[in-house]
Amino acid sequence: MKFGFQSAILADLTFEEVIDFASENGFECVEIMCWPVGEADRKYAGVTHLDVSNFTKEDATKALSYCEAKGVSISALGYYPNLLSPDAKEAETSLEHLKKVIKASHLMGLDLVTTFVGNDWTKSVEDNWPRFLEVWKPLMRFAEDHGVFIAIENCAMYFTDDEWPAGKNLAYSPAIWRRMFQDLGSDYFGLNYDPSHLVWMQMNHLKPLKEFSKRFFHAHAKDVKVDQDRLDDVGTMAVPLSYHDPRIPGRGDIDWQEYVAALKACGFNGAFCIEVEDSDYEGSLEDRKRSLRESGAFLRQYL
Predict the structure, then answer these.
(1) How far apart are CA 89 and CA 285, in angstroms?
(2) Which residues are 73's β-sheet partners?
(3) Cβ neighbours of residue 8 closer than 8 Å, sequence gap 6 or more
(4) What backbone torsions phi and psi does residue 84 show, to the nearest 5 degrees?
(5) Is residue 39 pLDDT above 80, yes or no?
(6) Mind listing the pLDDT tens digit for each residue in 99-118?
(7) What is the dihedral of CA 213, 154, 277, 243, to 10 degrees?
């Protein structure tokens, strides 16, 4: 597997500076963020390291040439909106931009895009399902026509009381993934697997590895610390951040030696990218760089 990081944590830097940092610190690849240029609507979003709005073959060649000169590859192009938002304009705009990301991935010969399924959090899973199929069946045909695989991250995207009861991403559990794979019927649709989300949902993060190993297209390395005292007080029906904190690998509850060994055992050979959402490393750009250096040093002993 290739070892790298997601570029969102280095929002201050240009594409070239992100690749320079990866090269100088021994990372093999970077998941490059490709949000539309503009302000973010949430933390760690709205980061544009490649602007794909009017992306050309020349743009692709320039970016790839820079990466090649630095000995760093791009693991995927990433964009994480809500394609099933109850706000029709938001959903439509997100879908159109995701198609641009898919086209850019094709032009670059990367053939992988990381994203979210999306969710209308005001409805149940069952009530979301017809719209999920309405949006994603033609989208997957579009991706297949461009030879691009889609890797869905398994974060529930549930942060505030306004997002009750299920957050802004439908693909948060094995039961839902299994149904998605069956109903979409596309070999190009898989997972960008992040074990930390299963941990805070009180689920076994190792159990899905065997069943879904062929659907693991990309993987995030992010840890989580569940505060049992807080959980005992508020329960799992509370807003999740009231009882857990995202952490860099080695500062949370995941046994990374066990997890990396399990990833290898299931045959995963994709990109393994650090994702930083640890509030203890948000004070400055140097803190954010340090989070990646420390995460890298910790995980390399198991890789």
Answers:
(1) 34
(2) 29
(3) 33, 44, 45, 47, 78, 275, 276
(4) -110, 20
(5) no
(6) 999 999 999 999 999 999 99
(7) -120
> Residue 76 in contact with residue 105, Cβ under 8 Å?
yes
Q: Which domains does the chain have, with CATH numbers?
A: 2-300 (3.20.20.150)
DSSP at 275: -
The residue with tokens 């306004």 is: 162
With left for phi above 0 and alpha for psi between -120 and 50, is residue 235 left, alpha or beta? left
73 touches 29 (CB < 8 A):
yes
DSSP track, 71-83: T-EEEEEE----T
Contact 190, 216 (CB under 8 A): yes
Q: What secondary structure does DSSP assign to 174-240, as a single string? A: HHHHHHHHHHH--TTEEEEE-HHHHHHTT--SSTHHHHTGGGEEEEEE-EEEE-HHHHHHH-TTS-G
To the nearest 10°, report the CA torsion of 203, 206, 212, 215: 100
How many angstroms separate the first and last alpha carbons of the chain? 9
Is the torsion defined by CA of 259, 157, 188, 40 positive or negative? negative
- Alpha-helical segments (H) within the chain: 15-24, 57-70, 88-108, 125-145, 174-184, 195-200, 208-211, 228-234, 256-265, 285-300
Note the pLDDT tens digit of each residue in 132-150.
999 999 999 999 999 999 9
SS3 assignment, position 247: strand
Q: Which residue has the tokens 């461009």?
A: 146
For residue 273, the surrounding DSSP H or E stretch is strand 271-274
CB distance 263 to 218 below 8 Å? no
Tokens encoding 178: 């299994």
Least Cα distance to 104 among 39, 49, 29 occurs for 49
Q: Is the pTM of this model over 0.90?
A: yes
Instruction: Give the contacts of 213 (CB within 8 A, at least 6 positions apart).
Output: 266, 267, 268
